[in-house]
Amino acid sequence: MNFTQRISSYFILAILLTLSFASHAEPGLWQLEKNGVKSYLFGTVHVGDSSMKGLPSKVTKAIDATDKVIVEVDISAISPMEMQRRSMPFMMLKNGKTLKSELSEQNYSKLKQYFSNKSIDIAMFDNLAPWAVMVTMMQMEFQNAGFSDQTGIDKQVLAYAKTKNKQIGELETLEYQMEMFNHMSLLSNEMIEETFEQLADVETYFITLVDAWKNGDMDTLTKYYNESFDDSNYGEISEQVMLIERNNNWVKELTPRLAKEQLFIAVGALHLPEQHGLLKQFKEQGITVTRL
Fold this sequence. Notes:
Largest sheet: 6 strands, mixed
Helix content: 40-55%
Strand content: 5-15%
């Protein structure tokens, strides 16, 4: 698989990790009940290590008890070739723009040094949008830390659901999620700076969050949420684009369905907490939310 195909296949799995980390000793699972109809909401991570193979029994039982599994995007249904065809138009810069023209001189120099240290020529990225380069960096670091999409919880949920012949539904399209990052192109420098900050402390920004997900530690999840989406310009805009708007769309779509369909909803765990999170919003819609 060439370099372009690799980042096309991984980009959504890698970048959404920043959106999807979740006191109980297991990952967070909630029952949603409306008019006597029971559904489930599960916070996921999109990559995992070997210790994360196999879904908790309470999760598989919840899937068994529902009629349809709802995910953000069913990437398992998209072939690598199709992924490349659909993603590349969003990832490539247009109108004569280059990676160098989209970043400050300082950030471009940092990127050049970062890839040079890995024996990679930054020229390979000349025509890629900064967010796509950021995804590539994160994906490489995840792999170095022993994490892979193959043990990601979303992929395991989908695999199990398909063995049970469950219907699969999507909340968004692949194109919608990629366009989300293009909307933040004016903040490319802030995005790159944030990425370097996180990569400088993988233990805090990644390992600790995975451990929090494993233990269903919502306090740590909430703390990370507030640190990531602070009152800076980048924090406020990224929260609006990546979380608030999407959560609002999902609640609008799912609320009427929860009164008549038994659904297992698996989305990134960072969509669950705080005032705009799914847990609070579903409660406000008259849905009984119970931690299992």
